[in-house]
Amino acid sequence: MERVTLLAGGVGGARLAHGLDLALRPSDEPMPISGNPAPRHPLTVVVNVGDDTELHGLWISPDIDTVLYTLAELNDEERGWGLRGETYATLEQLARLGEDTWFTLGDLDLATHIVRTARLRSGSPLSAVTSQIAESLGVRPRILPVTDDSLATMVDTPSGRLGFQEYFVGHQHSDEVLGLHFEGAEATRPAPGVVDALREAELVLLAPSNPFLSIDPVLAVPGVRDALTGTAARRVAVSPIVGGAAIKGPAAQILESLGHEVSALGVARLYTELADVMCIDERDAHLSGPIADLGFEVLVTDTIMGGPDGRERLARELLGLGT
């Protein structure tokens, strides 16, 4: 397959991107080596930027970095985010100097944010900076932020509207979510290559990412939803809900608080106009009939990716659904 596009955010999106990279990589091609130029790759990953934030004067793109680190095989597998072998001397010194350190930043991770911030301030757009960092890390797929413009996910809670990182990290996503607002979305434009990646793909995948916090901000950028609904590609959505619970993060709580069924069927109802195929876990096989009644083709398989082998296995099954 020559053109595959993945809409992603968070750990689930990063892990599926890794599986697709492994599945699409020629068997005789070596693993990535940091610093080597990235050769042409059939996979494009369009990544959420609604989680981006500025802290300590640095611009941080958590979803982009999770995808980059996972594809470079530098990520901390146990946590699912951040870099393996991190130390926190800088964070400890920031606290000593009176800075609020509620958002954990490791010493290695800080290098990414320093480079990104310097290049953004020099006038480079986020998409170009992301491409440069990806190349430096030896990442093969094309990684595109959905937009180069300012877009911020805001979370409405009983105590008021919170910025995403305040809700997710500061409050440990414990607040009830009453609504979501994607601040600045109306004024954004898709980053170069995003719309073409959807229109020209043979297969478009919606990762098992949080539909509200990872996929909706991507679709909030004008032109992206239209490109997805108008593509000739097969569109496959992977449910992040398995057996009535989220694999990771607050997807289940948000489904419930916003009045949706907490199940793979509840997710399918959100994606009726956005996907042709729903991929659900074996534990939800009993929902395949009701999901099919919504107009979907249904793939029932083991969607728990785990390590590289599990990710590649799922990726190969999904790639088999392409045109």
Could you walk me through the main structural features you see in this protein, from its secondary elements to its overall organization?
- The structure is a single chain.
- The chain has a 7-stranded parallel β-sheet, sandwiched between helices. Strands 7-6-8 form a 3-stranded antiparallel β-sheet. A two-stranded antiparallel ribbon has the order 3-4.
- The model has no long low-confidence stretch (mean pLDDT 93).
- Helix 1 (10-24) packs across helix 13 and helix 4 (107-121) packs across helix 5.
- Helices cover 37% and strands 18% of the residues.
- The protein has 323 residues and is α/β, with parallel strands linked by helices.
